[in-house]
């Protein structure tokens, strides 16, 4: 076995840790671009609070609030242009995975002279310093180097990440997450589950990431459903925020698998679909495929143990199959039962989606425990339709 594990992000976790944003930001710049979505951070008052906190420490900020869920390269290029015009020296991502991912891509594009899409192939020379202030517990983008963006002309939605894209510091304040509605809590929380499931069972899984996954599974068992049903439950919100970060660190080194490889083209071609809802539609067929792999089966059995559903004398294989039942129950408890068709995917796009998994997310296909080609991927999509 050999592996690398690296993460340079300074994490500040705690209720009301938002108040430290000014002191933290001051270390990196005085002219900040705050990158956020269209409404949630305005409605909850967090955006206004942040602007004031920064001002109190002498930091001027301007706000770019045109980031949509499943962000596009046009939004990112527009923000990078603004950052250059305004001589921005610091990018602050505020929101869910979409604004956070965008903040990293903007930080890269604002340093260079080419459209952000070109950085998929060309290594950037550097990036402006990035600070993340996360509002969902989901993607793990707050602590990792990845950014995911959609090319609206083609529907392609690749993930990319360079070392210069790690946030310098991440503020994880569970109070900010209390305003998430149930559906956002469910879809983003399910994303955490799939991150740890795929990192734990992937070909490049490693013992450090595994230990993060095991802790995240335990936190999910404890608090996922409570966070969905009791938005203000700060213990549940805190547990989910920590699980999100652990999962984000895990996928940074151990990667994701076929569920993510197929979901990106789903929400790339149908941008109204929430990433976590797409994952939910794809998970059962994917687990039924991956359980055929012996090593994966052993890991599934371990996860089933963490979820504690051991009744009577069960073989490892029984336990692994139990996990699929556990996942079905979680999906039903949090209300994520929609198949791809129910989410608005049209059947004639399935072939395009299966092809794009290999062209835009091949690293995830390769990390999947079971080797599969386009034919098997298409079957999987049809089973999830
Ligand atoms: O857009 P606004 O107005 O901000 O509202 C958002 C959006 O409608 C809302 N929201 C966020 N925080 C809230 C809130 N509403 C109330 N209270 C809050 N505290 O929720 C909606 C979804 O937000 P979004 O940022 O799109 O969700 P998420 O965090 O799931 O991010 C999804 C994006 O991240 C990518 C996905 O593909 C997708 O593009 N991913 C990034 C990864 C990474 N960087 O490692 C890995 C993931 O696998 C994933 O691919
Ligand atoms: Mn994900």
TrEMBL record:
Top-level taxonomic group: Bacteria
Keyword Membrane listed: no
Keywords linked to the UniProt accession: Oxidoreductase
Gene3D superfamilies per UniProt: 3.40.50.1970, Dehydroquinate synthase-like - alpha domain
GO terms, molecular function: alcohol dehydrogenase (NAD+) activity; metal ion binding
Domain Alcohol dehydrogenase iron-type/glycerol dehydrogenase GldA: 8-174
Fe-containing alcohol dehydrogenase-like C-terminal domain residues: 185-384
Pfam families assigned: ADH_Fe_C (PF25137), Fe-ADH (PF00465)
Name of the protein described by the UniProt record: Iron-containing alcohol dehydrogenase
Organism: Candidatus Acididesulfobacter diazotrophicus
């Amino acid at each position: 076995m050999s592996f690398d594990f690296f993460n340079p992000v300074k994490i500040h976790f705690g209720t009301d840790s938002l108040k430290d944003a000014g002191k933290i930001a001051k270390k990196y710049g005085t002219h900040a671009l705050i990158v956020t979505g269209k409404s949630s951070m305005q409605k909850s008052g967090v955006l206004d609070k942040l602007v004031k906190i920064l001002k109190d420490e002498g930091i001027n900020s301007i706000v770019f609030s045109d980031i949509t869920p499943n962000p596009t390269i046009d939004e990112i290029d527009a923000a990078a242009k603004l950052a250059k015009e305004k001589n921005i020296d610091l990018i602050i991502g505020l929101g869910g995975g979409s604004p956070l991912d965008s903040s990293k891509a903007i930080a890269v594009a604002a340093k260079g002279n080419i459209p952000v899409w070109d950085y998929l192939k060309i290594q950037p020379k550097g990036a402006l310093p990035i600070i993340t202030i996360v509002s969902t517990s989901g993607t793990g983008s707050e602590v990792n180097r990845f950014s995911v963006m959609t090319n609206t002309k083609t529907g392609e939605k690749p993930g990319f990440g360079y070392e210069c894209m790690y946030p310098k510091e991440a503020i994880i304040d569970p109070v900010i997450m209390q305003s998430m509605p149930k559906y956002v809590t469910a879809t983003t929380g399910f994303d955490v589950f799939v991150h740890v499931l795929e990192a734990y069972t992937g070909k490049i899984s490693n013992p450090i990431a595994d230990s993060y996954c095991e802790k995240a599974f335990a936190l999910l068992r404890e608090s996922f459903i409570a966070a969905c049903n009791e938005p203000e439950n700060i213990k549940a919100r805190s547990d989910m925020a920590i699980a999100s970060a652990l999962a984000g660190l895990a996928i940074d080194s151990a990667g994701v698998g076929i569920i993510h490889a197929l979901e990106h083209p789903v929400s790339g071609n149908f941008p109204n679909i929430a990433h976590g809802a797409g994952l939910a539609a794809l998970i059962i067929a994917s687990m039924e495929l991956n359980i055929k792999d012996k090593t994966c089966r052993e890991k599934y059995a371990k996860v089933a143990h963490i979820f504690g559903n051991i009744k009577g004398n069960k073989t490892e294989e029984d336990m692994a199959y139990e996990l699929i039942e556990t996942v079905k129950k979680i999906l039903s408890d949090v209300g994520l039962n929609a198949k791809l068709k129910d989410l608005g995917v049209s059947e004639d796009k399935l072939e395009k989606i299966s092809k794009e998994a290999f062209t835009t997310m091949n690293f995830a296909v390769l990390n999947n425990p079971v080797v599969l080609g386009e034919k098997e991927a298409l079957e999987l999509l049809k089973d999830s339709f």
